[in-house]
Amino acid sequence: MKHINHIFFDLDHTLWDFETNSDIAFDTIFKKHNVKIDLEKFLNYYRGINQKYWKLYREEKITKEDLRVGRLKDTFEIIKFDATSSLIDNLSVDYIEYLPNNNQLFEGTHELLDYLKPNYQMHIITNGFNEVQSKKLKNSKLDHYFSQIITSENAGVKKPNPYIFNYALNKANALTSESIMIGDNWEADIMGAKNVGLDVIFCNFNKELVSESIKSVSILSEIKKYL
Q: Any keyword tRNA processing (predicted)?
Protein backbone atom coordinates (compact mmCIF):
# COMPACT_ATOMS: atom_id res chain seq x y z
CA MET A 1 0.00 0.00 0.00
CA LYS A 2 2.62 2.47 -1.14
CA HIS A 3 0.01 5.15 -1.78
CA ILE A 4 -0.79 5.48 1.96
CA ASN A 5 0.82 8.41 3.77
CA HIS A 6 -1.61 8.98 6.66
CA ILE A 7 -2.89 6.43 9.18
CA PHE A 8 -5.86 7.28 11.39
CA PHE A 9 -6.21 5.04 14.47
CA ASP A 10 -9.07 4.60 16.86
CA LEU A 11 -7.82 4.52 20.48
CA ASP A 12 -10.08 2.58 22.86
CA HIS A 13 -10.38 -1.16 22.17
CA THR A 14 -7.89 -0.77 19.30
CA LEU A 15 -4.60 0.28 20.92
CA TRP A 16 -5.64 1.04 24.49
CA ASP A 17 -7.11 -1.96 26.33
CA PHE A 18 -10.27 -0.29 27.57
CA GLU A 19 -11.89 -3.27 29.30
CA THR A 20 -8.83 -4.17 31.39
CA ASN A 21 -8.19 -0.57 32.39
CA SER A 22 -11.85 0.07 33.13
CA ASP A 23 -12.03 -3.02 35.37
CA ILE A 24 -9.04 -1.77 37.39
CA ALA A 25 -10.59 1.69 37.73
CA PHE A 26 -13.84 0.26 39.10
CA ASP A 27 -11.97 -1.90 41.59
CA THR A 28 -10.13 1.21 42.79
CA ILE A 29 -13.14 3.52 43.13
CA PHE A 30 -15.37 0.89 44.76
CA LYS A 31 -12.72 0.38 47.43
CA LYS A 32 -12.34 4.15 47.84
CA HIS A 33 -16.10 4.60 48.39
CA ASN A 34 -16.51 1.36 50.36
CA VAL A 35 -18.96 -0.07 47.81
CA LYS A 36 -19.28 -3.68 48.88
CA ILE A 37 -20.45 -5.57 45.81
CA ASP A 38 -19.22 -8.50 43.75
CA LEU A 39 -16.98 -6.74 41.24
CA GLU A 40 -17.19 -9.49 38.62
CA LYS A 41 -20.99 -9.56 38.83
CA PHE A 42 -21.09 -5.78 38.40
CA LEU A 43 -18.69 -5.85 35.44
CA ASN A 44 -20.54 -8.68 33.69
CA TYR A 45 -23.63 -6.47 33.46
CA TYR A 46 -21.84 -3.13 33.13
CA ARG A 47 -19.89 -4.00 29.97
CA GLY A 48 -23.02 -4.60 27.90
CA ILE A 49 -24.86 -1.63 29.38
CA ASN A 50 -21.86 0.61 28.70
CA GLN A 51 -21.81 -0.48 25.05
CA LYS A 52 -25.53 0.28 24.77
CA TYR A 53 -25.03 3.78 26.20
CA TRP A 54 -22.05 4.48 23.92
CA LYS A 55 -24.17 3.52 20.89
CA LEU A 56 -26.86 5.96 22.01
CA TYR A 57 -24.17 8.60 22.55
CA ARG A 58 -22.73 8.03 19.05
CA GLU A 59 -26.22 8.41 17.63
CA GLU A 60 -26.67 11.76 19.45
CA LYS A 61 -29.60 10.34 21.43
CA ILE A 62 -28.13 11.02 24.87
CA THR A 63 -25.74 13.55 26.37
CA LYS A 64 -22.29 12.99 27.83
CA GLU A 65 -23.78 13.30 31.33
CA ASP A 66 -26.52 10.78 30.51
CA LEU A 67 -23.78 8.34 29.50
CA ARG A 68 -21.62 8.88 32.56
CA VAL A 69 -24.43 8.48 35.08
CA GLY A 70 -26.95 6.25 33.29
CA ARG A 71 -24.61 3.32 32.74
CA LEU A 72 -23.88 3.14 36.47
CA LYS A 73 -27.48 3.65 37.56
CA ASP A 74 -28.77 0.90 35.25
CA THR A 75 -26.11 -1.58 36.35
CA PHE A 76 -26.75 -1.01 40.05
CA GLU A 77 -30.49 -1.46 39.46
CA ILE A 78 -29.97 -4.80 37.68
CA ILE A 79 -27.77 -6.21 40.45
CA LYS A 80 -30.17 -4.78 43.04
CA PHE A 81 -27.59 -2.61 44.79
CA ASP A 82 -29.14 0.43 46.46
CA ALA A 83 -26.93 3.31 45.27
CA THR A 84 -27.86 6.88 46.13
CA SER A 85 -27.73 9.61 43.49
CA SER A 86 -24.86 11.15 45.41
CA LEU A 87 -22.85 7.93 45.32
CA ILE A 88 -23.48 7.48 41.60
CA ASP A 89 -22.40 11.07 40.94
CA ASN A 90 -19.21 10.61 42.96
CA LEU A 91 -18.41 7.30 41.27
CA SER A 92 -18.98 8.75 37.79
CA VAL A 93 -16.57 11.60 38.52
CA ASP A 94 -13.93 9.37 40.08
CA TYR A 95 -14.17 6.81 37.28
CA ILE A 96 -13.23 9.47 34.72
CA GLU A 97 -10.38 10.61 36.96
CA TYR A 98 -8.94 7.15 37.69
CA LEU A 99 -9.49 5.52 34.28
CA PRO A 100 -6.43 7.11 32.56
CA ASN A 101 -4.17 6.02 35.43
CA ASN A 102 -4.31 2.41 34.23
CA ASN A 103 -2.67 1.99 30.88
CA GLN A 104 -2.65 -1.57 29.66
CA LEU A 105 -2.20 -1.60 25.89
CA PHE A 106 -2.96 -4.40 23.48
CA GLU A 107 0.02 -6.64 22.85
CA GLY A 108 2.39 -5.20 20.28
CA THR A 109 1.09 -1.62 20.35
CA HIS A 110 4.44 0.13 20.82
CA GLU A 111 6.20 -2.28 18.47
CA LEU A 112 3.65 -1.61 15.71
CA LEU A 113 3.77 2.17 16.15
CA ASP A 114 7.58 2.15 16.19
CA TYR A 115 7.47 0.17 12.94
CA LEU A 116 5.01 2.58 11.27
CA LYS A 117 6.26 5.94 12.54
CA PRO A 118 9.26 6.38 10.14
CA ASN A 119 7.08 5.97 7.07
CA TYR A 120 3.68 7.43 7.92
CA GLN A 121 2.01 10.37 9.61
CA MET A 122 -0.26 8.93 12.28
CA HIS A 123 -3.34 10.41 13.92
CA ILE A 124 -6.10 9.47 16.36
CA ILE A 125 -9.85 9.75 15.76
CA THR A 126 -11.79 9.03 18.94
CA ASN A 127 -15.30 9.43 20.33
CA GLY A 128 -13.86 9.48 23.85
CA PHE A 129 -13.95 12.51 26.13
CA ASN A 130 -11.25 15.16 25.67
CA GLU A 131 -10.14 15.22 29.29
CA VAL A 132 -9.69 11.46 29.40
CA GLN A 133 -8.19 10.68 26.00
CA SER A 134 -5.32 13.15 26.32
CA LYS A 135 -4.35 11.63 29.69
CA LYS A 136 -4.56 8.10 28.28
CA LEU A 137 -2.21 8.99 25.44
CA LYS A 138 0.27 10.75 27.69
CA ASN A 139 0.25 8.21 30.53
CA SER A 140 0.60 5.24 28.19
CA LYS A 141 3.44 7.00 26.31
CA LEU A 142 1.54 6.99 23.03
CA ASP A 143 1.19 10.74 22.50
CA HIS A 144 4.50 11.22 20.68
CA TYR A 145 3.48 8.89 17.87
CA PHE A 146 0.55 11.01 16.69
CA SER A 147 0.43 14.31 14.82
CA GLN A 148 -3.28 15.07 15.23
CA ILE A 149 -5.67 13.98 17.99
CA ILE A 150 -9.21 14.31 16.66
CA THR A 151 -11.94 13.98 19.28
CA SER A 152 -15.67 13.98 18.72
CA GLU A 153 -16.00 16.85 21.20
CA ASN A 154 -13.68 19.01 19.10
CA ALA A 155 -15.28 17.97 15.80
CA GLY A 156 -18.79 18.48 17.18
CA VAL A 157 -19.98 15.07 15.92
CA LYS A 158 -19.14 11.46 16.61
CA LYS A 159 -18.01 8.56 14.45
CA PRO A 160 -19.57 7.28 12.18
CA ASN A 161 -20.77 10.76 11.15
CA PRO A 162 -18.94 11.57 7.88
CA TYR A 163 -18.08 15.05 9.13
CA ILE A 164 -15.61 13.82 11.77
CA PHE A 165 -13.58 11.93 9.14
CA ASN A 166 -13.53 14.91 6.78
CA TYR A 167 -12.66 17.15 9.73
CA ALA A 168 -9.76 14.81 10.58
CA LEU A 169 -8.51 14.75 6.98
CA ASN A 170 -8.55 18.53 6.92
CA LYS A 171 -6.72 18.83 10.26
CA ALA A 172 -4.08 16.38 9.05
CA ASN A 173 -3.85 18.02 5.62
CA ALA A 174 -4.42 14.55 4.17
CA LEU A 175 -6.17 13.30 1.04
CA THR A 176 -8.73 10.50 1.23
CA SER A 177 -6.79 8.54 -1.39
CA GLU A 178 -3.62 8.53 0.72
CA SER A 179 -5.24 7.70 4.08
CA ILE A 180 -6.42 4.64 5.96
CA MET A 181 -8.53 4.15 9.10
CA ILE A 182 -7.72 1.40 11.62
CA GLY A 183 -10.24 0.54 14.32
CA ASP A 184 -12.21 -2.11 16.16
CA ASN A 185 -15.77 -0.81 15.88
CA TRP A 186 -17.50 -2.03 12.74
CA GLU A 187 -20.13 0.70 12.67
CA ALA A 188 -18.15 3.69 13.93
CA ASP A 189 -14.68 3.04 12.51
CA ILE A 190 -15.01 0.74 9.52
CA MET A 191 -18.34 1.64 7.93
CA GLY A 192 -17.96 5.27 8.96
CA ALA A 193 -14.57 5.55 7.25
CA LYS A 194 -15.60 3.57 4.16
CA ASN A 195 -18.61 5.83 3.67
CA VAL A 196 -16.27 8.80 3.06
CA GLY A 197 -13.99 6.79 0.77
CA LEU A 198 -11.23 5.89 3.21
CA ASP A 199 -9.45 2.58 3.06
CA VAL A 200 -9.80 0.58 6.28
CA ILE A 201 -8.27 -2.15 8.41
CA PHE A 202 -10.64 -3.84 10.86
CA CYS A 203 -9.13 -4.83 14.21
CA ASN A 204 -11.19 -8.00 14.43
CA PHE A 205 -9.95 -9.10 17.83
CA ASN A 206 -13.13 -11.11 18.48
CA LYS A 207 -12.69 -12.95 15.16
CA GLU A 208 -16.12 -12.12 13.78
CA LEU A 209 -17.17 -13.25 10.32
CA VAL A 210 -16.52 -10.38 7.90
CA SER A 211 -16.36 -9.99 4.15
CA GLU A 212 -13.08 -11.01 2.55
CA SER A 213 -13.09 -7.61 0.83
CA ILE A 214 -12.34 -5.95 4.19
CA LYS A 215 -8.74 -6.03 5.37
CA SER A 216 -8.95 -7.63 8.81
CA VAL A 217 -6.48 -8.53 11.57
CA SER A 218 -6.88 -10.56 14.75
CA ILE A 219 -3.77 -9.12 16.45
CA LEU A 220 -2.05 -5.78 15.97
CA SER A 221 1.17 -7.19 14.55
CA GLU A 222 -0.75 -8.45 11.51
CA ILE A 223 -1.18 -4.84 10.38
CA LYS A 224 2.43 -5.00 9.19
CA LYS A 225 1.38 -7.23 6.28
CA TYR A 226 -0.68 -4.34 4.89
CA LEU A 227 1.54 -1.35 5.71
A: no
